[in-house]
Amino acid sequence: MGHGRGGVGSHGHYVISFAGFNRPWATWIAYQLEQLGHRTTLLRWDPPVSMSLAEALRGLLDASGRILLVLDDWYFNLGPRSDEQWSVALREVVPEYKDRFTAVSVATRAIPPGGERLQPVDLRDLDSSEARRRILVRLELPTAGAPQSNDNAPRFPNDPPSVVNIPRRNLRFTGRDGALDELHSLLNRSGDGTSRVALRGISGVGKSQIAIEYAHRFGNDYDVVWWVNAGFRATAREQFADLAPRLDLWVGAEPGERIRAVHEALRTGKPHRRWLVIFDSADDMSQVEDLLPEGNGHVLVTTLTQDWATSGRLSEIPVLPFIREESVAYVRRRAPRLTEQEADQLADAVQDLPLLLAQTAAWLDTNRMPAKDYIELVRKGGANQIGIRISDDYPMGFQTSWSITLNTLETNYPEASELLRLFALFSPDGIPVRLVQKSHPADLPDHLASLAADPIRWYSALQRLSESTAVQLTYDSSSEDEPVVAGATMHRLYHSFLTSTLPEERRESMSFFACEVLSGADPRDPGEATEWPKYAGLLAQLETSGALDSSRPVVRALVLNCVDYLRARGEGRDGLALCEQTLARWRSRLEPDDPDMLKLTFQHANMLRRVGRFREAEAVGRAVVDRLSRVRAADDPELVRAKYGLGGTLNALGSYDDAYDLFESSASGVANSSLLTNLGITLALRGEYQRAADLHRETLKMRRSELGESHSQTLLSGLYYAWSLRLLGQYEEARSRQERNLGFWESADKWHPNTLLAEHSLALCLRRAGDLAQAGDRMRRVVERSLLKHGSRHSDTLHAQADYAAFLREHGDLAQAHARAGEVAKGYRDLVGPAHPFTIGTTGNIGLVLWKYGEREEARQIAEETLSGMTDAVGPDHPWTLGCALNLSGARSLAGDEEGAVQLSGQTLAQAKRVLGEGHPMTLSCKAALSADLRLLRRGPEAERLEREALRQLTEKYGSSHPHTKAVGRRDRPYWDFEPQLT
Question: pTM of the prediction?
Fold first, then answer.
């Protein structure tokens, strides 16, 4: 990382190389040089381990000017690098460039041999004047004249902030430069005024360590740096109030009075203008948000939750585990005997979590067990067998070895011990404590049922676990009374340790009760959006509880409902993973025709289709249909369900007639909403828009009556009906219905695929109704969210991209439209093949862009190929084929083939009248196109008659100010956008 700085009249350039640990020295030295008119560039020193030191030092020479190294212990230790390596590099590089290299030292250790060639100036234990004088003398610069006083000047590093209260610096802090730079940027981006940032991440990921390092590394930017432990409100208030006397505020001893005084002092910047207040472990926003100060300063929060970011009051930086390079560097500094490969293996075993790296590396540093053996134990959750030393870097680590803790619990607190064993059968990332407490007594062992029924004993046991084990409680503060324990987390390694100590018989017993608790909490309605939060919680417990391996019908029903929840929620990838995970277990226990196995297999095909693996979905679905068709009646519910699934896959593959025949064959006399929906979708894909709209209207009415207005299935029918109305050209009604429909979807989940689809549908309605600004804005947002939700190659994303590209072609950036149209066509070609209607149609859209560019012959050639391909794919009378013909007639006309254009225009108009009717927008576009072609052949009267008819019909249908009407009035050449349809 480097950035240049300079003063007016710069006459020299200095590259200041520093380890991140001593940024304060680098910035102070740069300021001194800039005040003398020199330019400076700060370069953080952290070469990759794969680069030799000699190569890294030479790399500094790529910049012009002199190189000033700020040497400290970190500078030499990064990597880590040995003194021998440094000596070789310094002796190899420095003599050749001794006129370029110079150095200052704040190191507490000896400079490696060879470093004397740099002639470093020692700056330790000096005041600012003497330090400045020595630096300038070393650089052979005049020392006369001190820099002008400036409130924004960096503080001399040996002078701490006026008021400081922060934990001691972690001398083994490693990496995190990206997070520290981002944090510094976010805190400083607003200039004057309060900047607030939250570091969010799981327990043990190093949020507090980053905050501590920031306070030390950037501390000389501030007059006040103050640390508040915000895990508990009372403690946070007291520590924040303690700032009052340190600011020399003459107030009383009452915390509230001192807090108000501190708030006022920080707001006004008196007595200190630049301040940083850190609220550590502020996981419950409601407990400490009133403490956050205002004014010309910075607030940093560390938290486990997203509450701060979602409140809109703070920016957020997600804190993830170490990247592997950071893990390896930390381990090798903490346990130098490990090789780079062993450090990598240890990091992998503990998932790069800093807390566990500190503990395991500390143990390896003081014990002689071969690293390979220890790492194997850790991978198996067996580190407890040898104990884990508490690292000074993480003083809030486990207080005793895990084995001793567990034995103590079993002896002195048997109820807490038994509860801990049950917790081990739930996900370590979210133990449903409240669910266990509120479960039916019959769902728990007798002694735990008794414990759950006694609030005092229950909370006493939870508190014991919180105090003495790796269990961290989470609280629900929404209650008007005292906050209640809602859940808990447990570190994965500790969780693995607990489960490994359970004998098989006891584990099975605990699994039985864990599954009882979960199945008892099953809402048994995965399609209902209001129940989704419950299913999200249950889903996380399936693997660890043993539910996937259970043979009990009630537990298998829970698993199937969780799969169906993922389907309803639109989480195709997660749903597919759960299906495949469960199939691997059930295949050895259930027959293929078992009802639960059939349901799971059906869902498997469904999920394959949802993630775009259409051929695999077809193979799975067809196998089930073929097998059931041989042994079941035609109206058997499982066979009908399998046909519905296979039909959906066939639609996705473009086999619309086959899908329609399959749905028709599954009808059993009385139409149901699922059949009508499937038929409606297929009819629209076949171009039978009116029949599709009629079926969707009937289905919507049926579902409203049976399920209610806001049920997800009702909303889906409303979406399909509005979509069909738009295809029929009934734009205003479609828009009105879709606006209302979208409101329901957004209130449930703004990121649900159906919500994105609903907004996409509304955007298309808005475009056709002439509201271009809102249409473009909504299309852009749908594309952005689809890319984040699904990725660039998902069918839903391609669908949205195709329509946005078409919009941009007519109302935006032609170059961007061209690029997007090309990406979409390629995406469909890769996903469903070159002969699929969607591939053909989106390729035709590229031709329309070329038409705009004036590439006449290439546009015509694409249009010819598109019409031929679409005719082969869906037949000559399909509206898509008619649209391709409309575009080809325009391309022929543009290319000078007036006779070919008028012939095709006349033929297409006749077909459109027959297929879509006299008043359909496609028919009216064909009429305007034929008028244009006749005019070019000087057949004026015919052209005028057709134009008048088209204008009259468009005015009657949409009004004189509608874009369609205006376009015909301007004699714009009509075109047709291919829009991929719902499948």
Answer: 0.57
